[in-house]
Amino acid sequence: MSIQKILPLEQAYRKVDELKERGVRVVLTNGCFDLLHPGHIRLFAEARKLGDVLIVAMNSDRSICELKGNHRALLVEAERAEILAGLADVDFVTIFDDASVLAVVKRILPDILVKGGDYTLDQIVGRREVEAAGGRVVPIPILPGYSTTAIIQAARRAVGMRE
Question: Is the pTM of this model over 0.70?
Answer without folding.
Answer: yes
